[in-house]
Amino acid sequence: MKEKLLKKFGEIFGDTEGAQVYFAPGRVNLIGEHTDYNGGHVFPCALTIGTYAAARKRTDNRLRFYSMNFEQLGVIESSLEDLKPYKEADWTNYPKGVIWAFIQKGMQIPCGMDLLLNGNIPNGSGLSSSASVEVLTGFILREMFGFEVSNQDLALIGQFSENQFNGVNCGIMDQFAIAMGKAGHAIFLNTANLAYEYAPVRLEDAKIVIACSNKKRGLGDSKYNERRAECETALQQLQRLVDIKSLGELSEEEFETLEGVITDPVIIKRARHAVYENRRTIKAVEALKENRIEFFGKLMNNSHISLRDDYEVTGVELDTLVEEAWKVEGVIGSRMTGAGFGGCTVSIVKDKAIDTFIERVGTAYEQKIGYKADFYVVEIGGGPTVL
C-alpha cells in the first residue's frame, strides 16, 4: 500500500520528495449504539481496514487534497486563509475542519500541505470513514509539526471539528475508538467522563463479519440530530424529578418509575433505548470477560431490536441483513452498527458458518432489496501510525 500511495502521490503532485505515509483505522461498535451522546457506555474496536495518506509540507499556505476514492473530483485546493466548509469542497471539509480545529485550539500551522488519501473502508458504510480521516489528519499534523497532543486529544479535536466545522452533532465514540485503538481489544468507554479500559476480545472459533448494506446515508442529513434532540427533551423532562446530567446515569428500574414524567410516547421510546442500551453494554463487557460469548451475542440481538423498535433508526436494509443473519446456524449475534439508516451490520459468526452466512444472507438481501450487500471478515487493529 505504501508504494502504491507514493507512486500516485508522485503522479498527482509532481514528485515524492519529503512525503511520508500514514494510516488510521476505521472502527466498528460491537454494542452500545446511540449511547455516546447520552452519557452512556460504548464498546467499539479499531479495525485493520482504514484510511491511508501520503502527505508533505509545502513552502506556502496552500492546501492541495486528492483522494484515490474520489478520483473524478481531481485535486481540490484550499488554503490556510480559507478554512470554511464549502459544499463543493466535498470530502476535504473533514481534513480542513481538523486543520481549523487545531488553529482554534491555539496551535499555529506554519505552512500548507499536499495530502493524498486512499481508504479501504466502504464510503457511507457506518464504519467511520469520516472520523478515520479526522484522526488521521490530526495525527499527520502532530507528526509533521511536533504538536504536543495525545491520542485522546486527537479524538477530542476530531469530534470538535465534526461538531463545529461540519455541523454533525456526533458523540466522541468514533474518534476515540480510532485514536485509541489496540489490536485484539475493544474499548469499554464511559462517554460521560472518558474513563476507559481495554477488554480483550477472544473469539476462539469465530470472527467478526461486517455486512455493508450499500444504502448510502449522510449523517448530517439523516435523523441523527433529530434523535439527539429527542433524547435532550427526555432528559430535560426527567430532570424535573431527578438530579441527573445524562440518561446514562439511570438504571432500567429507575427509568421505569420515572418515565411517566415524559409527555410524548415517542420521546419515552427514545429515552428507553438510551437507558437500556447503556445497561446492555455494561452487561456485555462483563459477559465477554467471563467468556460467555453466547450471552454477548444475545445482548447484540436485543440491541438491534431496541434500535429497530424504540429508536427507529434501522430501516428495511439493516433489518433484512440482521433478520436473515439470525436464521443462520453458527451466528452468535448480529445487530446494526453505526448511526443507522443504512450503513452496516456487525455479526459474530463461527468460523465454520462464515461461508454459509455470506451466501445465505447475501442472496436473501439481494432478492428483497434489489442490490447486493458486501461482506468483510475483519480483524481488530491498533490506532494511527506512521508507515
Number of helices: 11
Main sheet makeup: 6 strands, mixed
Unreliable segments of 5+ consecutive residues: none
Q: In what order do the strands lie side by side in the largest sheet?
A: 5-4-6-3-1-13
Task: Please give the share of residues in helix.
Answer: 25-40%
Head-to-tail CA distance between termini: 10 Å
* Proper CATH architecture of the domain at 2-31 and 42-201: 2-Layer Sandwich
What does this structure look like?
This protein has 11 helices and 13 strands. It starts with a helix and ends with a strand. Strand 4 and strand 5 (about 75-80) form a beta hairpin. About 40% of the residues lie in helices and about 20% in strands. The chain is of the alpha+beta class and about 375 residues long. The chain has a domain at about 1-30 and about 40-200: Ribosomal Protein S5, domain 2 (2-Layer Sandwich).
Short description:
The protein is of the alpha+beta class and 387 residues long.
Features:
about 375 residues, alpha+beta, Ribosomal Protein S5, domain 2, four-stranded antiparallel beta sheet, 11 helices, globular
